[in-house]
Specification:
The protein has 3 domains: 117 residues, D-Maltodextrin-Binding Protein, domain 2 (3-Layer(aba) Sandwich), CATH 3.40.190.10; 88 residues, D-Maltodextrin-Binding Protein, domain 2; 67 residues, 2-Layer Sandwich (Alpha-Beta Plaits), CATH 3.30.70. The protein is built from 8 helices and 15 strands. Strand 13 and strand 14 form a beta hairpin.
């Protein structure tokens, strides 16, 4: 049997849907069998293993899987022989310390001699040691945010994205320990044959991720403004410019970054652009 790359993804939870979506957008087709522990892709030498999130780093270190989609926070917490390959842009969050909202928080020293509940004891301990703070760490596996209310701890260390869970539980975020997002991670010593497959997959993922951040733009511009418009939307190499049937006007095609979108549109309008069309890009290879 020819060599297959084995990827571990979360069996259930926040990363599950986005991980499957990314693989599909990379052109990898598979049947989502319910309750399967592993499935084979139909058109790429890939086996997909569905595992419990917190077990994934160990499975990758042991070679049960070669690569995985997990949060950067988990790589740091578990400290196994695995490394981040590319960031995937979803499940953005931060690992933070939070305290009851009525606490007048003077700084990290507030935690000295107190109890902190967390599911991330290693990352927390490293952070506190570095800052010379001595605390009692209570490791719990879920619903960390209720710990102060039930008298289990004085504060918590947990993942936060919008902050609404903290708010609902009468807590406030006081320190950020690290920022995290989902990433593709791999065993530090992937063997050579699998590395070829991994490089193919990385190439596809980068094409999908780049296209998500960019839009194709088409517009009509007065010829006398073309030099300025070329500077506003330089595109990948340079914009395409074609004369319109109407004299003195051209059609300009280019690519713009999602983050600068509205600012660029304003500048284009100020320079006489008309009939601006914005089109999503499916894949982008630069
Ligand atoms: P879970 O689905 O809760 O097991 O979380 C799995 C992973 O999702 C974590 O290891 C984080 O990388 C990420 N994550 C957890 N909590 C959040 C959150 N509040 N916002 C965004 N991502 C999160």
């Amino acid at each position: 049997m020819s060599e297959k790359l084995k990827i571990a993804i979360q069996k259930s939870g926040r990363l599950h849907e986005n991980s499957l979506r990314l693989l599909k957008e990379c052109g990898i087709s598979f049947d989502n069998g319910n309750d399967h522990l592993k499935i084979q892709a139909n058109n790429f030498p890939l086996e997909i293993l569905f595992l419990r999130n917190s077990d994934i780093p160990q499975y990758v270190e042991d070679g049960v899987a070669d690569i995985a989609i997990i949060g950067q926070n988990l790589i740091i917490e578990k400290d196994k022989k695995i490394e981040e390959i590319i960031k995937l842009g979803f499940s953005k969050c931060r690992l933070s310390l939070a305290v009851p909202k009525n606490v007048e928080y003077p700084g990290l020293t507030w935690f000295n001699g107190r109890k902190i509940a967390t599911s991330y004891p290693n990352t927390l301990k490293k952070f506190l040691d570095k800052n010379n703070i001595r605390v009692e760490i209570h490791e719990i596996s879920g619903s960390v945010e209720i710990a102060p209310n039930i008298g289990l701890a004085d504060g918590i260390c947990d993942l936060v994205s919008s902050g609404s869970t903290l708010f609902k539980n009468g807590l406030k975020e006081v320190e950020i320990i690290l920022e995290s997002e989902a990433c593709l991670a791999a065993k530090t010593d992937v063997d050579a044959k699998k590395k070829i497959l991994l490089d193919k997959l990385i190439f596809r993922m980068k094409a999908v991720l780049t296209s998500r951040n960019n839009k194709y733009v088409l517009l009509n511009a007065p010829d006398k403004k073309l030099d300025t418009i070329k500077r506003i939307i330089p595109g990948i190499k340079s914009p395409t410019i074609m004369p319109l049937a109407e004299k003195g006007w051209s059609s300009v095609h280019s690519v713009i970054n999602e983050n600068d979108f509205w600012e660029i549109i304003d500048q284009l309008k100020e320079n006489g652009a008309q009939g601006i069309l914005i089109i999503p890009i499916e894949k982008m290879i630069v």
